[in-house]
């Protein structure tokens, strides 16, 4: 990603905040709810914002439609060559708003990369049990490709390719980044009721 | 050596005080008042609200072969374990997960109910109910009216955990009852504890109107009562007077009732007045008769709810009370509610209408 690009993601946003703002203090302070935090303590751990980084959204799938529309359009309107990265998970991929977003992006040829972080589980429900199609790169009227989300170099090259694709006026793109969640979804979810120990162990070893 | 010991003990004392302060800050803002009266006689068992709700759904699935339960992650029991064991008992075709799409869950439930099945849809948190809002308001609520009675989805019950929990923040603490109360055609119900939850949920499921059942999530485990094991229902649209008095009428629902019960105790002790406490239980339709009769008796009315003040359900209550009981009122109707701001994370203790704010409003009311 470059300076001019914007991004937004879902609630698991701590790493993104560090990346986009470079301020660990802002991040830690925000999680602790202090005034010196990136959102002045009002957002808490899920709602952290920084320059060109629009959070931090708890309502799953809403961020894909919510901010990206304006952001991606603003890039196109301003002609600054920027690209918007809208990240969401496999759980969110079945929200109606996401499909509405795809349609508008293609219709208006917006410089937007939709990144589906597929960790195979929407909290407690596996992707195969929640999605009729687990091909999250979709690729119907919007081209998409699959990336090994656990491989840093692959991610970097894929992002470069995506930026090039969008800035050359080819319109939106979808990337499915396959990854894995080692522990439960949140503090109230021990992650033992829908996974087996062996499965997690095997993944960790990879 | 001696000074080192003193410094250590002073330090230890500071740590102990800090931990104790933290515990006070982190502990809940209310004291739970269990129901002592049982709606039916017979065998009872100790249950918390989550277990009572589980029991109600178990009874429904057992007695009604068309009943189905669905929602996000309900297969393993759901995030609050209200559906625990139900898939094992009744099978995957009756208790199943849906994809993450609230609009889909509501729409699917409406269709099922219209087709004749008893549909119990679980929305994981009431804060997530808004994608389903159009389905509930425009479809579920209006189906019977617009078809002239030919079709209806009364067999639909949508359950969602609502309310403050201490650490929920913006999207795990909301109380959306007011949005739904504005929709003729729906029923909106909020229980205050296990006995109420079981009876009200069974009523909602059997009621021939689509119901939104909002369960205060903080009460799932903290509220325990001796709940009758048999099948029983509690009437919808009827409020319950929990405490009788003549000085003021305190109205609330859900978790807030327990705050008001404590405030009534404080009022008796510190102000020497006996207050009447009413649990609305049903928000839509609400029991105007019980409330107005009470206010006509006491002359003073205080309404409290967690949802923001402006256009919270308290506004509707206040408007009706002043209209029906005007000549009996000794003071303006008072509302103590959440502030008009998104539900905060760290500022939650300041946001909630806790017992101190309610007591202060009550004192003003009584001394008006």
UniProtKB/TrEMBL annotation, chain A:
Q: What is this protein called?
A: Dehydrogenase E1 component domain-containing protein
Region ranges (Disordered): 184-206
Describe the location of the Dehydrogenase E1 component domain by residue ranges: 3-205
Q: Which UniProt keywords apply?
A: Oxidoreductase, Thiamine pyrophosphate, Transit peptide
Q: What highest taxon heads this organism's lineage?
A: Eukaryota
- Name the source organism: Iphiclides podalirius
Biased-composition ranges for Basic and acidic residues? Answer: 196-206
Needed co-factor(s):
thiamine diphosphate
Spans of biased composition, class Polar residues? 184-195
UniProt xrefs under CDD domains: TPP_E1_PDC_ADC_BCADC
TrEMBL record, chain B:
Name the reaction it catalyses. Answer: N(6)-[(R)-lipoyl]-L-lysyl-[protein] + 3-methyl-2-oxobutanoate + H(+) = N(6)-[(R)-S(8)-2-methylpropanoyldihydrolipoyl]-L-lysyl-[protein] + CO2
Q: Which Pfam families match?
A: Transket_pyr, Transketolase_C
InterPro entries linked: THDP-binding, Transketo_C/PFOR_II, Transketolase-like_Pyr-bd, Transketolase_C
Keyword Oxidoreductase (UniProt): yes
Domain Transketolase-like pyrimidine-binding, residue spans: 47-222
Which cofactor(s) does the record list? thiamine diphosphate
Please state what the protein is called.
Answer: 3-methyl-2-oxobutanoate dehydrogenase (2-methylpropanoyl-transferring)
Taxonomic superkingdom: Eukaryota
Aminoacyl-tRNA synthetase: present as a keyword of the record? Answer: no
Which of UniProt's keywords are assigned here?
A: Oxidoreductase
The record's annotation in CDD domains points to:
TPP_PYR_E1-PDHc-beta_like
What is this enzyme's EC? 1.2.4.4
- Enumerate the transmembrane spans: none
